[in-house]
Amino acid sequence: MPTIAVKRDLLFRYLEKTYTDEEFQKVCFEFGLELDDITTERQMIAREQGDESRSVEGASEEIIYRIDIPANRYDLLCIEGLVLGIKIFQGSLNAPVFRTVGSGINVPLKINVNPSVANVRPYIVGAILRNITFTCDSYMSFIDLQDKLHQNICRKRSLVAIGTHDYDTIQGPFTYEAKAPQDIKFVPLNEAQEYTAEGLMTLYANHAQLKQYLPIIKDQALYPVITDFNGVVLSLPPIINSDNSKITLNTKNVFIECTATDLTKAKIVLDTIVCMFSGYCADKYSAENVEVCYPDQRALLYPELAYRKKKVSAKRANGVVGIKIIDIYFSKIY
């Protein structure tokens, strides 16, 4: 069961309500969650280092809530989803309707898929969050959600790898293909010089975070790579993005791509990110379509943000929850 750490005061500000620790523990229980721990950033870091009594330079004493999240509730892995879920549950907010929109010129951004990826990492999906406004807190939450998804539904990037880019630094259409590692050259995220993909395998061999992902592609003859119209590398999935297209606090338009060996999970991951952060867009709860063009002439639009209606028998519902209700309809996003 994954656990998220949220700043108590920020959480209460988003919820537009203040609780005592006991009151919020009750809110979690009613919503189906568990408030696992009440701590501080300093205590969390000290605990990881094996000494809770030690002083940690620069660490905050701000109260942190650590909350256990059900394994199948990917939407609750960030403060945005947690707040949205609680508000809807408490009836203080109507469930938003998430939707896709065109590019404004009726020609969506295209990702052209080369046949070479078929036996490497065959699927890709994408979306654009337009006119988004980040704060320090929402920016860090955006990055943290990707990490949480990578460790859970993405199965440490083996099934899905997420790339997020400043759309204003690159030019579509994009190409998704597989190339020999020595033929892929770019400046990776937070580095100052250019490397080949082959060189990155050596560079990251002892990297604390990235070394665990290298075996996914290291022994393959071809590596997947995403490039823009000018041949500029965006990403070497599932390892690292390019420094050229990195997002910052000032990024206004975010291009999200998810490459995958499991298309269903890729769509869930993309929809989750879009639904959690489209609330920060000027046109709230919307995402711009991206068209993925496959070699067999299929052209698929993402994100799907699909809804379906489910009819639930009152008799069955009564038998499960032990109450008496009439026939109702449920709507759920997938």
Automatic annotation (TrEMBL):
Coiled coil: none annotated. It is found in: Cytoplasm. Keywords: Aminoacyl-tRNA synthetase, ATP-binding, Cytoplasm, Ligase, Magnesium, Metal-binding, Nucleotide-binding, Protein biosynthesis. It catalyses: tRNA(Phe) + L-phenylalanine + ATP = L-phenylalanyl-tRNA(Phe) + AMP + diphosphate + H(+). InterPro entries: B3/B4_tRNA-bd, DNA-bd_dom_put_sf, Phe-tRNA-ligase_IIc_bsu, Phe-tRNA_synthase-like_B3/B4, PhetRS_B1. It comes from the Eukaryota. Residues 120-282 form the B3/B4 tRNA-binding domain. One of its GO terms (biological process) is phenylalanyl-tRNA aminoacylation. One of its GO terms (molecular function) is RNA binding. Its main location: cytoplasm. GO terms for cellular component: phenylalanine-tRNA ligase complex. Its cofactor is Mg(2+). Its EC number is 6.1.1.20. It holds the Pfam family B3_4. Tetramer of two alpha and two beta subunits. This is phenylalanine--tRNA ligase. The lineage of its organism: Eukaryota, Metazoa, Ecdysozoa, Arthropoda, Hexapoda.
